[in-house]
Every structure is written in C-alpha cells, then in structure tokens.
Amino acid sequence: GAGVSQSPSNKVTEKGKDVELRCDPISGHTALYWYRQRLGQGLEFLIYFQGNSAPDKSGLPSDRFSAERTGESVSTLTIQRTQQEDSAVYLCASTLRLNEQFFGPGTRLTVL
Amino acid sequence: GIQVEQSPPDLILQEGANSTLRCNFSDSVNNLQWFHQNPWGQLINLFYIPSGTKQNGRLSATTVATERYSLLYISSSQTTDSGVYFCAALGGNSGGSNYKLTFGKGTLLTVNP
C-alpha cells in the first residue's frame, strides 16, 4: 500500500480482556516499530523488528505485551489481560534501512 | 541513549506570525525528523534532516549536527498549523540504540485567527 495502515482505528475493551492490534507496513520496508502514546505525552518505544526478528523488546512494559511479525510484513501487537493503564494510542512505523520512519494513523485503545 | 529536548513547550501565535521551534539532542545522530501531530493524532512527516537545511512551502528546517540542534521555522502561520510538533532523533553511535527514534516531548502550537 501507499502508507502504513493500522487496524482497528479504535478499540474499546473491558479490563481483563485480550486485544490484538494490527500493522501493515509500507511494502518492502524491512524495519517495523511499535510505539505507545499516552494522552498528552510523547511517543514511547515498545519494540523493533528487523525482518521477522525482534532484536529489541526492551520497551514492552510487561509480560502481558507481545508482538510478532510474519512474512517480513504484517505485525500484530497483543495485550493480554488489559489494564486501565494500557489505554493509549498505539502507533506503528516502518522504514527502509533505518532511514526516515513513516507512521500509521494509530489505534486508540480504551480499557474500561 | 540519546536525549532529545524541545523548546518551547507551548507557543501561541496570531495568524500570520512567524515562529521558530528548537530541538537539542545529546549525541551524534544518523536521523533527525520533525513531525506534526494533527488533532486526530496522525503523525505527519515534515522533514527528514540529519544535517543541512530543507524547505517545504512555509516550513523550513535546519540541523547543525556538530552543535547538536535542529530548528523548525514556520512562516506566515495559519490556524491549520496548530497541533503538536515533535522532533525525533536516531543516535549515530554503534552499540547503542541506533535504530529507534527517541522523541522529544513536543511543542504545542496554537495559532489563533
């Protein structure tokens, strides 16, 4: 596609439920990133993929968070047993050879 | 890792005014980007500028890598320029986190009609 796409655009869930967030990067981009942005804050790095491998998972806040990437393309961020503090916008970005990063529109997650 | 600081944190302008936003970073960079986050949360790429000067319409940016700062200039501001402007840097030193962008806290720009 022409840009990075994410789905769903909005997700409202109840505390304790699991959620899956999807990212489709720009075709051919080898690197993919997930960031989180809490209300009124800057972006917080979560995880980085080079191809299908994740050399840096250091930003994942807890073991309830996991992510995978398949076919050097789509990535899924999974949050298990969601908590209210997980409410945020989750942004995905992709880049070719660690150059300019391009961001998707984000998924706004609300945990009630 | 690299530290990124932006100033000012807030800026209020009258339509038509000019402004300069500043980004200081603590280490050498391979990548320096400026973004505009619109009211719907979308991050719009403004400039990819690890060094030098670029211009795009009413916006221009300059990065002086040796002095570790970047400036974003907005001329003849319009109400649609309102939003948060982020600077983000990717550190240039090997062995560190030289693959992920570190974001500043942003400058909230409000342009009044």
Polypeptide structure, described:
The complex is a heterodimer of chains A (112) and B (113). Chain A is mainly β. Helices cover 0% and strands 51% of the residues of chain A. Chain A has no helices and eleven strands. The mean pLDDT of chain A is 93. Chain B is built from no helices and eleven strands. In chain B, the strands form two sheets. In chain B, strands 2, 4, 5, 9, 10 and 11 form a six-stranded mixed β-sheet that branches. Chain B starts with a strand and ends with a strand. The model of chain B has no long low-confidence stretch (mean pLDDT 92). The interface between A and B is medium-sized, with 22 and 23 residues.
SSE topology sketch:
The complex is a heterodimer of chains A (112) and B (113).
Chain A: E1 5-7, E2 10-13, E3 19-24, E4 31-37, E5 43-50, E6 53-56, E7 65-69, E8 75-79, E9 88-95, E10 102-103, E11 107-111
Parallel strand pairs in A: 2-11
Antiparallel strand pairs in A: 1-3, 3-8, 4-5, 4-9, 5-6, 7-8, 9-10, 9-11
Chain B: E1 4-7, E2 10-14, E3 19-25, E4 29-37, E5 43-48, E6 52-56, E7 59-64, E8 69-74, E9 83-91, E10 102-103, E11 107-112
Parallel strand pairs in B: 2-11
Antiparallel strand pairs in B: 1-3, 3-8, 4-5, 4-9, 6-7, 7-8, 9-10, 9-11
Largest sheet of chain A: 7 strands, mixed
Overall number of strands of chain B: 11
Q: What overall form of chain A do the CA principal axes indicate?
A: globular
Helical content of chain A, roughly? under 10%
**Shape assignment of chain B:** globular
Rg over C-alpha atoms of chain A, rounded to the nearest angstrom:
13 Å
What's the multimeric state? Answer: heterodimer
Count of DSSP-assigned helices of chain A: 0
Strand content of chain B: over 45%
The percentage helix of chain B is under 10%
SS class of chain A: mainly beta
Following the backbone from N to C, one meets helices and strands of chain B in this order, namely EEEEEEEEEEE
The number of distinct helices of chain B, counting runs of at least 4 residues, comes to 0
